[in-house]
Amino acid sequence: MMGVTTKIKDGLRTAMGVRVDRALPQPGAMPGHGAHIARADVRVRVTAEMNEELWAWLTARGWREIDLRSDRRRYRVGKPSATEELAFADSEHDRERIERLVMDSADYSHLELARKPQR
Q: Is 21 helix (H, G, I), strand (E, B) or coil?
């Protein structure tokens, strides 16, 4: 729970425009089955075995592996079959279409809302 002093400091930072967007971290090793990857405010679980080419394509587009245990951000949840569909896409155009669909259709799950209450 956030203390009063922390809330005041947080409000002052917002009012003074001190907020700075975080830089995109360097891509790490290819995530394994069951890991979570995220881009912007959307996360998906890796449900298909990924190859190096797909991981390179995803990281070039801003996807990174995340560790939910230490991450306090709130994410909209993408559809569970997203990585499978991306892995079996026939062309880059299909991958872009699938990614756009995942980003557009993602929403907060009840578990995500319960896990991290809004301020």
A: coil
Alpha-carbon distance of 73 to 71, in angstroms, equals 6
Global confidence as pTM: 0.77
Residues 83 and 101: their CA atoms lie apart, in Å, by 12
Range 69-84 average pLDDT: 89
End-to-end CA distance of the chain: 10
Query: Between these two residues, 87 and 24, which has the higher pLDDT value?
Result: 87
The CA distance from 58 to 63, in Å, is 5
Amino acid (one-letter) located at 44: V
Is the distance from CB of 46 to CB of 32 less than 8 angstroms?
yes
- Secondary structure (DSSP) of 30-65: PP-TT-EEEETTEEEE--S---HHHHHHHHHTT-EE
Q: pLDDT, tens digit, for every residue of 48-64? A: 888 999 999 999 999 99
**Tokens representing 9?**
């400091």
